Amino acid sequence: MASVKKVTKSKFITEDISDLMNGSQFLKDSPINKKNQKRPKIDVTENYDIPKVSDKKKKTEANIEPGKQSRQKIIEVMDQHLICRKQTNDTLLKCISELISQVDTDHSVMKENEQKLEQLTGAFMKCIQQATVAHKQSLKALKEIYDTFKKQCDEMQSQQKAETDQLAGELEEDIKKLQQKLVMETRRRGPLWFDVYRAFPPKTEPKFAKPKPEIKPIRPILYKEDAIRAKFHSNGYGLATVNLLSQSTETQTKRLIQQYKNLQSEGVPENEILEISAKAVANERQAEIPKISAKNPDSVTAQVLTEANIKNIFKE
Fold first, then answer.
1. Model pTM?
2. Which residue among 9, 26, 196, 215 has its CA within the 20 to 30 Å range from the CA of 175?
3. pLDDT at position 162, please?
């Protein structure tokens, strides 16, 4: 890490210095960037003027001052860059160390999970093997039971077939003997119906002509109330619960017919009679339902029974 750090530092510093030197106005004007010109050979015979030489020295000193200032600025910029690089490297190293520690913890957790998974897989495989052995044993037992049952069924079927064949042969022989006996008796005495005919002769001579069909009018079997009852049943008002223990209560259809006749006598329109009569009968039946009374009216159960709405109990 130290070697890499040094290389990166030197690379960034050289790039920054080159950019700064190329973009600095001081360095452009400084005498360092100027091309070194060769000194002309001094001719000893030439006479120099001393004031001119002093002026030239002053000019060169004035040109050197901006170079010193630019050098100081370059050093300051380099120091700032070094500080920034150091801070970034420190933060990077810190992040990398945290990441490495986190990766180490994740790796240890993964190892633990791997061990647990291996244990779980081993237990699961063991259970599967035990279940497979148990299934094999049960399958073997079922096959043995099936084979024995099939063998017994085949033996029983063959035995029953032999018995039925033997019984059929015996019955056939008995029937043949009975037929022969009946044939012998009929030949000797004649058919039996001859004796019946002689003992009970018919009053009229039998004829073989087909009798003429007699057309009779169909007798009406429906009542007038049946038409009204059919209207109520077609609209679904005819069926209701019936108390089979009480003989005094009237049926639903009987009450509906009575209401229908009363409303018809009052002049109610035909399309409204069915609904009005059905509502009236329903109200009468609701009023006839006995209310539940408790022995102790002050108890909590008595209050619940009094406040209970039996009609809408399933809607709450």
1. 0.28
2. 196
3. 92
